[in-house]
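Q: How would the structure tokens look for this protein?
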Amino acid sequence: MYRAVTRQIEVTVEPNFLPERSSVDKGQYFWSYTIVITNSGNETVQLRTRHWIITDATGRKHEVRGEGVVGEQPVLAPGERFEYTSGVPLPTASGFMTGRYQMVSESGLHFEIDVPTFSLDSPDNKRVLN
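A: Here is the predicted structure in token form.
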């Protein structure tokens, strides 16, 4: 599991390779990832936008920006958490993702929180130590 905390908001990520949605012969690899966002602060916040940078094993980057996550812009009161699962395809057997969420507090303050960089590794990928 991967974890980042920004302004008392914790984001954890657990990626999972999905062999049933992947095709090694066609160079198609697919992962799901489950994200939990927990508000440990004392002010209600809302997730407004997301920004992802997805990098495959060849170094090719793909950026994704949009409103909310999985069609929602969740509001988190102090102590509340929001969990969702999404997915990502890659043309290579490994890669990584990193990102940020733009949040707004109930007092109107806009700020960004980090999503931890997380690794996407298929069981077919051979690790090389340098």
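Strands lie at 2-6, 9-17, 29-39, 45-56, 61-67, 75-76, 81-90, 94-105, 110-121.

The chain has no helices and nine strands.

Upvote if useful.
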